[in-house]
Amino acid sequence: NFWRKIMPQPLKHSLYVKGTSEQQSKQDFVSGLRGFLLNDMAANMKECFESEVQPQMIRDQKKLETGEDVHDAIKSKNVFKFYSSMRYNAQEMVWRNALRAIHESKNELDSRINAIKNGQSASKLHLDPSLAIPKNVSSVDVHLAPGSYYREDGSANWVGGALYDHGLNIFSFGMMGSNLDDIGQSMAQYIRKKFPDFAPKTILDLGCTIGHNTCAWKITYPEAEVEGIDVAPACLRYGNARALDQGVDVNFKQMDASALSLENESVDVVFSSMFLHELSVKNIKRVLAEAHRVLRPGGLMLHMELPPNDSLEPYDAFYLDWDAYYNNEPFYKAFRDQDFTQLRIDAGFQKDKLIEFITPQYTYMDSESYTKAIEVDADFDENTGRLAEGIQWFGFGAWK
Q1: Residues 82-91 pLDDT 10s
Q2: Do the Cβ atoms of 400 and 353 come closer than 8 Å?
Q3: Are the C-beta atoms of 268 and 327 separated by less than 8 Å?
Q4: How many Cα atoms occupy the beta-carbon half-sphere of 303 within 13 Å?
Q5: What is the pLDDT of residues 217-235, one digit of tens each?
Q6: Of 186, 230, 182, which Cα lies nearest the Cα of 204?
Q7: φ, ψ of residue 295 in degrees (nearest 5)
Q8: Helix (H) or strand (E) holding 35
Q9: Considering Cα of 35, then 386, then 102, then 181, what sign does the dihedral take?
Q10: Phi, psi (rounded to 5 degrees) for 209
């Protein structure tokens, strides 16, 4: 089976915590469990829907138009209860295993981070002590991560970043690239190959967390000045050390994406990855309007996100919306229920300048195969944005 072939991989920087043999075995188990849940068990749940739930809904003349309709009909089934219970517990196991390895290596990690920063030669970090952590981050442990992204454990004020890095590696069971940067690589390479004359000088990554995708843009456009912003100092401290360790010259700044401290028309690319769904609809509109304000004419706003619900079949919408109900993602469904076209138009972008695409994973293919793959416009399917075999990423945005 697919899940038996996949495991977390050692990350390509010196802050990667290998852990003991016992810790590695536990992490491999949790990754394998998540792979099994999101592939084999998910397939069983869909089979139950198609063979039992959907026919019963048709017989009862129940509405089957949205993911909510599917959720209401299937949530009483044991297969859904078992799947949900297992997935919720596996999510918590991800963070427990990552934290245990980090804490047992905390002194060593602290020494590495300090040594990297003391010897820094390029990447810069700017924190803003006056910037409060917004309630959408401070009031909930996002993704069930204890302490969320801004967690600081005393002098180890980088722990939130380390937790994100190592937790995501376990969480994604080898599906996010060898350095967790496949989304950034895929998005940037798609733009570079589709629009070869576009040569951005300044690139801004919103909600960059640890800068894994920020670095991908610098690798793709080495002549550009690339900066990642986030509200969480712990992620920025860790991300800065991570980038320095890899020799990637990107800068990090503590800033709120809904109120950018940047001049009008000063940026060529405004990018984000899996960020908008962490915001209320009101703040999403502010972020998009700010992106329009700071973009130069001819610049690009691009967001990698999960596809909107109105583009999916009801079952696929239900499947992706699971996180909104059970994974501490309070804004997830409300965002995906929006009209993505209207959001961009309301932000000031022209309808004929909008861009949307689906791309395969760049770092899992050779460059020539990737170039051929994106020559054909792909359609949404059940694997768009989903950690499963055949995954593909959805990007949407606009040119200014």
Answers
A1: 999 999 999 9
A2: yes
A3: no
A4: 26
A5: 999 999 999 999 999 999 9
A6: 230
A7: -75, 140
A8: helix 21-36
A9: positive
A10: 50, -110
